[in-house]
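Quick one:
INPUT:
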């Protein structure tokens, strides 16, 4: 069984910086949305905002803007990793994301956009992994490696895309969730061989 290498990587960090103070205000606004307007609720939210860094080590996180979509970001990742000659041999796109983008899945929508821009792209295998945001990318990497080794795929893109900011409920009762997560995206391009940036020996998802 031949080796599988990571031949390219890409990442996208959103431009919008959201500070702990911003999160604190959102917690207060969330309390108001639940019609909890007594001073004690607001004071609790403010106190929690002040200790976010102490409890989590986080000073800020990044959010994608309202005009950005998981599909646009996924396509941008592909363009960062591949030159024009690579599209014809892209045999699979696997997307790990807990962020929904309607029907069909994100991977299929990325293919539609990519085919408009790069006519050489044929009909790659597509798969969306959405069951677990924490380990989803490891599942994608495991499947991608198997496609190259067992099925003879020439080039497989594994993308991780998260728009957590659009799923968060800013509620003082959900303090941990609303203070931890931000948005980002990253990807790797897999090919057979051992001449890439890194060789994948073992994956455990």
């Amino acid at each position: 069984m031949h080796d599988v290498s990571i031949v390219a990587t890409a990442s996208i960090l959103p431009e919008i910086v959201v500070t702990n103070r911003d999160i604190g205000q959102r917690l207060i606004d969330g309390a108001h949305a639940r019609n909890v307007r007594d001073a004690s609720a607001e004071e609790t939210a403010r106190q929690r905002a002040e200790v976010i860094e102490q409890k989590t080590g986080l000073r800020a996180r990044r959010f994608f803007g309202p005009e950005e979509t998981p599909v646009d970001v996924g396509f941008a990742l592909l363009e960062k990793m591949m030159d024009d000659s690579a599209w014809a041999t892209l045999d699979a796109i696997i997307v790990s994301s807990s962020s929904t983008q309607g029907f069909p899945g994100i991977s299929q929508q990325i293919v539609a956009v990519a085919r408009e821009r790069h006519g050489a792209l044929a009909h790659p295998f597509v798969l969306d992994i959405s069951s677990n945001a924490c380990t989803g990318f490891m599942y994608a990497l495991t499947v991608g490696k198997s496609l190259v080794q067992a099925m003879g795929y020439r080039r497989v893109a594994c993308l991780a895309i998260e728009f957590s900011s659009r799923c968060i409920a800013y509620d003082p009762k959900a303090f941990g969730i609303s203070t931890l997560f931000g948005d980002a995206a990253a990807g790797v391009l897999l090919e057979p061989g051992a001449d890439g940036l890194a060789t994948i020996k073992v994956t455990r998802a």
